């Protein structure tokens, strides 16, 4: 069993929040569900709630607290995926379970976000040490009552807009260590472990609700235990990939032609620009 019930959200670190919000609104075909700030953290954010998770765009507001750390991260790594949160219904029980699993987490901490109109969202976090998570920002989150987000409003025809996240991709240079982390230490179900010689990849698929954490790496390379894992890309689920591709092309986004996906029965296209460092795929699931 795992102390987590879902992938709550993924976080993208960006320099210019307004530009990134516009780019992702165009990509997703949706307006943000929330635009606000974390006064105590010195950061600002935009949130896009989808059917099964939400996307957080996070930018520094001031050069202090977490804002200063985020500025340093952007300077050293550039824009891109920063980490992800795993949903829990009870932060205290989650922390106890993780400690029983040998993961030395601190006591849950409280967080608060505010929008321009004065609305407040509150939550409690359980941060996993980066020494355990192989360098990624990973934490459990319990949202307080009344903090749920509305689904991001459509700005495009529904069949051409992003409905949900399909999977997010982690690159690992030590696949067995990463497998033990998510499968054994965090208790997330490993649905598939398969090597694809034609692609030179071994892929591990960890299932959380109807989302997948996909871990990718070379099956032939010598493991590099000290190398950090990298949160690399996101695949977004669309009802009609042809309609989505035409919409993005009309908007001037750099998008590939539609092609067959690697997963049988899927069709995909790649968004190649204005994703702020995130490898991005749109996927139409099998009929």
Detail the topology: elements first, then pairings.
Elements: E1 6-13, H1 17-28, E2 34-38, E3 43-49, E4 54-60, H2 65-77, E5 80-87, H3 91-100, E6 109-115, E7 120-127, E8 137-143, E9 164-171, H4 175-185, E10 189-196, E11 201-208, E12 211-217, E13 230-237, H5 241-250, E14 259-260, E15 267-271, E16 279-284
Parallel strand pairs: 1-4, 5-8, 9-12, 13-16
Antiparallel strand pairs: 1-5, 2-3, 2-6, 3-4, 6-7, 7-8, 9-13, 10-11, 11-12, 14-15, 15-16
The helix-and-strand class reads alpha+beta
Distance between the termini: 31 Å
Largest sheet data: 8 strands, mixed, barrel
Strand order of the largest sheet: 1-4-3-2-6-7-8-5
Strand content: 35-45%
Tally of contiguous helical segments: 5
Low-confidence stretches: none
Give the SSE order as H and E letters: EHEEEHEHEEEEHEEEEHEEE
Mean pLDDT score: 96
Count of beta strands: 16
Portion of residues within helices: 10-25%
> Which term fits the overall shape?
globular
The radius of gyration over CA amounts to: 19 Å
How is this structure best described in words?
With 287 residues, the protein is α+β, with helices and mostly antiparallel strands. It is built from 5 helices and 16 strands. It has an 8-stranded mixed barrel with strand order 1-4-3-2-6-7-8-5. The two termini are 31 Å apart. The mean pLDDT is 96.
